[in-house]
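Now for one specimen:
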Amino acid sequence: MNRILEVLKISTRLGLTSFGGPIAHLGYFHEEYVKRRKWLDEKSYADLVALCQFLPGPASSQVGIAIGIQRAGLIGGLTAWLGFTLPSAIALMIFAFALKSFNIQQAGWLHGLMIVAVAVVAQAVWGMATKLATGRVRGAIAILAAVITLLVPTSYVQVLIIIVSGLIGWRFFKTDSAQKIQPMYIPITRKAGIGFLISFLVLLLTPPLLRVGIHNQGLAMFDSFYRDGALVFGGGHVVLPLLQRDVVPTGWMTNAQFLAGYGATQAVPGPLFTFSSYLGYVSKPYPNGIVGGLLALIAIFLPAFLLVAGALPFWNAIRSRPGFQSALAGINASVVGILIAALYNPVWTSAIKTPYDFSLAIVVFALLMIWKLPPWIVVIISAVGGIVISALV
């Protein structure tokens, strides 16, 4: 019980302070779970990130769920998801109720939160690169992955990069096969893991068949949001066109309502998939309000939980194989490259517009790297800095 409460406390704090999107979230997780708490070592964390890059769904949320599971079992995974997700989901449902017409996209404090994401991602890239992209071959993999990701920015290309990098690692990093790895504690049996994977497929395939004979918006909403959460690679902004396709043409809401909610989503911490709670809240005719918000929220995140719980029982055995360790060396180097690309676009391009922005980014980066201030304090400082910048320019 103490571990469950510990997971809830830390994940809730991350859910209240983790601004900047999924790549920034991985930086916050690395700082909190690896460097400060030491719940898992650098390699285990990097391997988890690699696993969740393979799985469809919100990668950062899946990493958080996996860490919660290894720390406090299935309930720990659920608590980690609740703590990280509910703050932004509740905020977005409040926005849906009262603040839909406010133009928050131009708020100075919001711009400050975007700037701190630059520093957080830069810190994560630096920390992972010094451990996972050392040497000429690994460095070359990281650079090529970054260049290709920037020039061909699609989620499927990212998956292809990871696969090819794994093959390169398997071919060239044979010396890594003797590396000793620390097995992760996974309190889920393989039989249970198979059950979770079967449940994932049943919930993916059954609702579309039921919708043929049952015309119910609740069923339609669950099917749409579950499918979007189950089939999108890359998470975050990649899921937005899928969501828009499901909720606007169907008449559940107007395009103006959709865009207003997207603007509100930029103002809250936590995973972008919590946008679903706003969409469920404003949907019409029924379900809507809190019931609709919760239904959409659960439906879009449920595939992530089932996939992580299904894959983890087999992960230690897979990642301990010498050949797979070699492949992971290449995969982890490519993940560093993908992080470098994300540092530029969308993190840098959306946040750094003026010399004032760059100056604030340097300051908050130094606060994280040199003065070692806790991320939540740096977030507050950057938000205040954003307000000051908006008054100067």
